[in-house]
Amino acid sequence: MSDFGDLDDADDLDGADGADGAGDGDDALAGSAALAELVADVVVVGGGPRAISLLERLTARLGRAGGGEDGGSPALRVMLIDAVEVGAGATWRTDQTAEFLNNTYAAHTTIYPDSSTRLTGPLTPGPDLIDWARAIAARPGASAGGSPRSASPVGATDARPVGIAGDSWPVASARPAWAVAEAATLEPWSYPTRRLQGVYYREQLEAIVARGGVDVTEVHGLVVGIDPVGGDGGTAAPPAHGVSEATEVTGVVGAAGIIGAADTRTVRLADGRSVTAPAVVLAQGMVQGRPDARVLAFREAAAVHGLTYIEPGMPAERDWAAVPGGEDVLVAGLGANFFDVVTTLTAGRGGRFEQAGASAFDLRYVPSGREPRLVVGSRRGLPYRSKSFYDGFPPPYRPQLATAEWFAEAAQVPDQEFGRDVWPQLAREFVVAHLATLAAHHPAAVSTITGPGASGVPGVPGDWDDAATVRLPASVLARIEQTDVADLEGLVDELVAQERWRIDPTRLDRPDVRGPDPARWAKWVEQWREAELDSIADPLRSPRCTVNRAMAFLRGRVARLVRGGAIDAASALREVNGWFAPLGLALASGPPPERTAQLLALVRAGVVELLGEGSEFTIDGEEFVGRSIVRGREFRTQAVVETRMSKGHVDVTDDPLLRSLLTGGRARLLRRSTGPGGQAVTARTLDVTTEEFALVDAGGRADRRVFVLGIPAGDVQPGSAIGATPGVPSPLIAGADLVAGQVIEIVRAEEPAAVIAG
User: Fold this and answer.
1) CA-CA distance, 100 to 475, in Å (whole number)?
2) Whole-angstrom Cα distance, residue 210 to residue 567?
3) Which of 244, 267, 591, 713: CA 20 to 30 A from 13?
4) DSSP letters along 386-398, please?
5) Both 542 and 574 in a single domain?
6) Residues 416 and 378 in one domain
7) From start to end of 568-622, where are the E strands?
8) Are residues 501 and 619 in the same domain?
9) What DSSP state is assigned to residue 748?
């Protein structure tokens, strides 16, 4: 993900639809006569959570969900186009393995607004994921067999209206039995499978359409272009064979630089079909990146020498059976996808995990003999830190230096440099979080610190409640606040007697071993394994876990500073997006605790070996080579797996629609002025208007018939990468509400446009 949404209190998978960037679905539709003569008032590119939220906001505004602004109007005709699965998108596709988990709590997922989100449209209630799961688990007959619709080949019925009310799934498919079984076990603090979340999204789509106010047609297909057409320039009539050939025209540009309202827009699919409508909404979610130089080189080497190379991408779309068992395999990347890959290649091949100690998370791996030995690395050198197990929800983090008052003051100062003006206070807060937990639960490690209520004798802890409410003595807080970032590590060394409890706040996501020292590296890995296990099983006593909670809290506050203009545009792009957002992901957007517990068991068993910081992967003749700055040796293999996850960068995307919009001048990357000289910096996301989210073209003109929701325009819509959480303001829902209002205004202004040809 990289946009400012990465900073909010959630993770990089929550909002990623991946709806139209990949998939084979459009091949099955070529020549489908059933699609001829369907009409649309609005075309939505993407069929995941953003598209569903848009539909929810449309029905709410049209007044069919209980009274509203347009109860007597005809139903709005909406076409949803998705290359993978309408109602789920690529991330939440319902045909993926049960081994792929979401990395946020089940209770933190909804598609419906509540009073926490500022809307101009009506507030309409609906079930969150937990409410829905409990309902279907309790409903008689809910476990009827059947399988969900996916991107498997389909015939002429692939474009069809949806909106079947009641318990049934779309068309002939019943709700899958596995969904009911999993729903029965789900707790608010559980981590659901991604496929179950996809079923939730799909069924909410059905329920929203059943409200009335919209007629929805689904199309499986890959969108490749959008052309302006209409009364001021026109299009050629569809030729006799039924495939429209739209002629691009230049829209009328008014004095305000707005493309003329007389236009309609033609959306083109990869198979040659097209649909014309007055309004188009792009809701793709997480777009994938096109192959970089390393991918191209590795791909060629694999083809020439018969090697195995698994390219970056969505784990559910990769052929894991191609990875050989019983031999070394290099794994490049230790982010969110890494845990999916490890699980697939171990437990997915018959390996088992058994409890090995007193903690349920202290596991032993029993190999099947079919798994590879994974030699894993990244530039950072460490996997994402784990979520922790609380038998409930974690306590809130209460900052002592980076307080609400401090952020309120920071918000009043425009155009600050993040690294100079904001980061130092955050780094100090991480030190406070670490030391407070040590003082409360490991006082021998910080014998010079005494707490409030203590006798004043060094080494005697105060009356701590828990790590969430501990306050360090004022004298210690003052020392930390007066210390420069570069000197914080030295201060920690002074205050913390035992080396194993020390931290460097500038290297929280990196190992302590920084040079070639294999023996020290092996010792450090064992200490890391123990610290991670402690943070999972005993989180309130773990300083590591408290730092993670601090980051989860603080990154949301940083996002607010960015949204409010307190951070200079160049600094926001270079520093916040460049290194702070990835740091936030590494510390606070990690996997469910059971996944990390399994990884720790695999490391102990030697099935997974960490390369260390500065890992690099190259090709040498007929072999792949992995090395790092700490190992002192090379690992040569016949197979490499890339687990890198797309960050949604539009400038390097392989999404054919976004590429065509950019290369054709119909869109441009966001540029912002920065500094006293007003120098412009270029973002990696689309430029859209801040008031409407209308697409801006290369000449700076806003197209008020094409709107962009979410990740591709994330720098104008910070936070929109994150799925909606009950009780938390949702940029995703707020954006959908804003665009829904624009769409209704457009459709009211003129007759619906006509035709999908194919």
Assistant:
1) 47
2) 44
3) 267
4) PP---SSPPPPP-
5) yes
6) no
7) 608-610, 616-620
8) no
9) H
Residues with Cβ within 8 Å of 474's Cβ and at least 6 positions away in sequence, in order, are none
Domain that holds residue 343: 293-384+592-642
Q: Are residues 584 and 630 in the same domain?
A: no
- CA separation for the pair 104, 751 (Å, rounded): 44
Are residues 332 and 428 both part of a single domain? no
User: Quick check: is 390 in a domain?
Assistant: no
CB atoms within 10 A of CB 369: 9
Task: Output the CA–CA distances (angstroms, integers) from residue 173 to 84, 93, 208, in the order listed.
Answer: 17, 15, 19
Q: Residues 155-174: pLDDT tens digits?
A: 223 443 343 233 333 433 47
C-alpha distance from residue 462 to each of 415, 453, 459, 547, 663 (Å): 41, 5, 9, 21, 64
CA distance readout (Å), 93 to 18, 87, 147, 209, 247: 10, 8, 12, 20, 35
Q: Are 454 and 582 in contact (CB under 8 A)?
A: no
| Residue 86, Ramachandran bin (φ over 0: left; ψ between -120 and 50: alpha; else beta) | beta
Amino acid at site 131? D
pLDDT tens for 560-601 read: 999 889 999 889 989 999 999 999 999 999 999 999 999 999
Inside any domain, residue 392: no
> pLDDT tens-digit profile of 84-136?
999 999 999 999 999 999 999 999 999 999 999 999 999 999 999 999 999 99
- Tokens matching residue 6: 């990465």
Same domain flag for 508 and 488: yes
Q: Are 365 and 602 in contact (CB under 8 A)?
A: yes
Q: Show the 3-state SS of 227-257.
A: EEEECCCCCCCCCCCCCCCCCCCCCCECCCC
Interaxial angle between packed helices 194-210 and 49-61, expressed in degrees from 0 to 180 and rounded to the nearest 10: 20
Tokens representing residue 561 in the block: 């500073």
